[in-house]
């Protein structure tokens, strides 16, 4: 489901977030870091720091639907993956390294766009304790600004 | 409710992200160009592409938006409820002007065209400075 072209999109300096909602339809935003794709390219695992993710975890336990937004800070290419969460657990040390790597990849564009202090803040986002959230991808959308924004890719 | 501290977050310097949901509880997360201060208790969001975000808001008026302070980088979450949509008037023109400035800064002048302004009441604001370790 997740094509080679989509996988290549994960390699840039990325800003990533998730959307969840509770059973009353109240939405929640949370910043996440790092992504892993399973061998069959049907499932994604993303990493959510507890410090920003308490509401998202509660929401996902009552409503497992998730929207994952991934935007390339260098060229604004943006995709949204939607699906159903199948597992929430504590991230391993290796997974923390993946999350931290995504953070480090963003340092240069954040510094260039906004400044050194902002890059330092970006670097110092607290990432532990860290949850690993795995979801089955059901829909993929183009969200790059322009006339094709919102187009369903898969 | 919109404090002096929050105002710089609403200048369109750091892109914001909005989360909405369908009536059958599928969330949608999308980057928005502009979260514009209307008065002390309202903000407006620009609709350029008639996207899923704005279709969701017809079904469920609740939204949450993350904005970020452009200098301190402190994230804030705004809990919002849609109250009206404007397609002309002073607010529309002000947002159109700011959007043109944002488009020019980001090389999106040919892409961004304001279709409507979605005006939200701010229900509450959450300060997430504790998500960053300050040296």
Order of helices and strands of chain B: EEEEHEEHE
Query: In terms of per-residue confidence, which ranges of chain A show pLDDT below 50 for 5 or more consecutive residues?
Result: none
Strand ordering within the main sheet of chain B = 2-1-5-6-7-4-3
Distance between termini of chain A?
7 Å
Largest sheet strand order of chain A: 1-2-3-6-5-4
**What structural class do the secondary elements of chain B suggest?**
alpha+beta
Q: Give the termini distance of chain B in whole angstroms.
A: 28 Å
Helix/strand-derived category of chain A reads alpha+beta
What is the quaternary state of this protein? heterodimer
Reported for the largest beta sheet of chain A, the result is: 6 strands, antiparallel, barrel
Number of alpha- plus pi-helical segments of chain B: 2
List how many beta strands of chain B DSSP finds: 7
Rough shape of chain A?
Answer: globular
Count every helix of chain A, treating DSSP H or I runs of 4 or more residues as helices.
Answer: 5
**Helix and strand sequence of chain A:** HEEEHEEHHHE
Q: Which ranges of chain B are low-confidence, i.e. pLDDT below 50, for 5 or more consecutive residues?
A: none
Output the radius of gyration of chain B.
14 Å
Please tell me the overall pLDDT of chain A.
95
- Strand proportion of chain B, as a percent range, falls in 35-45%
Report on this structure:
The complex is a heterodimer of chains A (154) and B (135). Chain A has five helices and six strands. Chain A has a six-stranded antiparallel β-barrel with strand order 1-2-3-6-5-4. Chain A has helices at residues 4-8, 50-62, 93-105, 107-113, 116-123, and strands at residues 14-21, 27-37, 43-49, 65-72, 78-90, 130-142. Chain A is an alpha+beta fold and 154 residues long. Chain B has 135 residues and is an alpha+beta fold. Chain B has a seven-stranded antiparallel sheet. Helices cover 19% and strands 40% of the residues of chain B. The mean pLDDT of chain B is 92. Chain B has two helices and seven strands; from the N terminus they run E-E-E-E-H-E-E-H-E. Chains A and B meet through strand 1, strand 2, strand 4, strand 5 and helix 5 of A and strand 1, strand 2, strand 5 and strand 6 of B.
